[in-house]
Amino acid sequence: MPESVRIFIGYDSNETIAYHVLVQSIIENSSLPLSITPIALNNVRSIFKRDKHPLQSTEFSFSRFLAPYLSNYEGWSIFMDCDMIVRKDIAELWNMRDDDYAVMCCKHDYTPVSDTKFLNNVQSKYEKKNWSSVMMFNNARCRALTPEYVNTRSGLELHQFKWLGNDNLIGSLPLVWNHLVEDYPYNPEAALVHYTYGGPYFEEYLDCDYAEDWQQYKRSTLHVTQRAKAEPEPA
Question: What Pfam families does the record point to (predicted)?
Fold first, then answer.
């Protein structure tokens, strides 16, 4: 029996529809069984005690790093932000797992084009920006990410992978698996699209790149087959 792909998705109550559309996009394109878990604050309240930081733009900014703990430090798991869609088979990403590394991600090297993003949140700029928005964790090698560590360490310590102690433990994934809308030009081969500044669920981003792709998965999310009405009896 094929192994299930274990996926954690950051859930934000300000972008509820984004979470569900992302899940639908993964389901539609996957050739493997899936285990998908939202990381929602009310679900992890017993282990996540951290106060919201003034520069925190999403509810899962720090709780994302609980994924290895929630996996019991076993096997591999994927984390991704909710403001995304997956346009190709997640098995392609899953098959890139490499036990030489503790974590794998897309190693972006860019400067954000804007100082703000959705809901007027500040677009923070720092080394390894957006590396942690899609991560594949080799969970047994991420035991430093205990709830206590995630609750107490600085944002930069977490998002810059300082908990690894060695950047050589960070493996590279192709950038098409975290394509940053607006920061990168349109790429028809983008496997995972990341609406970093805001997605088509916000009025001001209705016409952004890959908006129609997102709307397509939204229609699928809302789809339900209706029973055909019985034809009237002839008079």
Answer: Glyco_transf_8
Summarised one tens digit per residue, pLDDT across range 49-81 is 998 887 677 999 999 999 999 999 999 999 999
Residue whose entry in the numeric block shows the structure tokens 């433990």: 169
Three-class SS of the chain: CCCCEEEEEECCHHHHHHHHHHHHHHHHHCCCCEEEEEECHHHCCCCCCCCCCCCCCCCCCCHHHHHHHHCCCCCEEEEECCCEEECCCHHHHHCCCCCCCCEEECCCCCCCCCCECHHHCECCCCCCCCHHHEEEEEHHHCCCCCHHHHHHCCHHHHHCCHHHCCHHHEEECCHHHHEEECCECCCCCCCEEECCCCCCCCHHHCCCCCHHHHHHHHHHHHCCCCCCCCCCCCC
Cα–chain center distance at 78: 8
Rounded to whole angstroms, how far apart are CA atoms 217 and 190? Answer: 16
